[in-house]
Amino acid sequence: MTDVREDRAHEETSGDAARWVIDSWTMTRREFARWARNPAGVLLALFFPVMMLVMFALFLGGSMTVAGGGDYTEFLVPGLLVLTMAFGLEGTMTAITRDLGRGVLDRFRSLPMAPTAVLVGRGVADLLESVAALLIVLAVGFALGWRWHGTLSAALGAVGLLLLLRAAMLACGIWLGLVVGRPELVMAVQILVWPVAFTSSAFASPESMPGWLGAVAEWNPMSATATAVRDLFGNPGVAGTSWAAEHALFLAVLWPVLLLVVACPMAAGRFRSLSR
């Protein structure tokens, strides 16, 4: 009798896992269908980092210096890749708040489906969009003179760090979208993202900043990823000797993992508590 109960429990667990995967993929396909109906929004999101890269590389690059005399475009491209991963936060928030305001999330919660499949589907779709954005920025950077000088495994590790940061930002965006609840409040959060992005080493080395601002930039999670990605690509990086600069790879993993550990349960809990 005990063996029969254990077999049934195993079957139910396996069935729940399979349903979760199927429901999550269904929600991912829903996001693809939404992209097909509104390609302009997707194209605009992909065009924005390209515009930033061209503007800084061509218009401002001639006046920028890099520690050790390296090429500024090679310094800039990894930083823009990091910002590309961070700037998707508001897009995720807008989509979540739109579904929340229209009652779409409440309808999904009333269906016999895995509770968090809606959030997972949104996250997977955004990650796939991020891969496309990475490829486009890398292609434009290559056209502007950027090159990677490391091994293929190191380059893949850099891409992995970028997608890890993106996953952490998506988790935060989903949770914040569920908290703010209205699309018009997304702008307030977006305004806060910009100072964090620009107080990093994405565009300039912390050594070129005032002392207190340079210290803030060195401990910025985006700086850790930017420095680690530059090292893995073999591009010019910062010349700092602080603990944060010397352990950038460790921090590039630690910061996103901490954000995921905190944001994922909070987003799932907030989603389950809707309309209670």
UniProtKB/TrEMBL annotation:
The chain crosses the membrane at residues 40-63, 75-96, 117-146, 152-178, 185-204, 248-268. Signal peptide: none annotated. The keyword Transport applies. InterPro entries: ABC2_TM, ABC2_TM_bact-type, ABC_2_transport, Nod_factor_ABC_transporter. It comes from the Bacteria. Its main location: membrane. It is found in: Cell membrane; Membrane. Keywords: Antibiotic resistance, Cell membrane, Membrane, Transmembrane, Transmembrane helix, Transport. Residues 40-274 form the ABC transmembrane type-2 domain. It is a multi-pass membrane protein. The keyword Membrane applies. Pfam families: ABC2_membrane. Belongs to the ABC-2 integral membrane protein family. This is Transport permease protein. It comes from Nocardiopsis lambiniae. The lineage of its organism: Bacteria, Bacillati, Actinomycetota, Actinomycetes, Streptosporangiales.
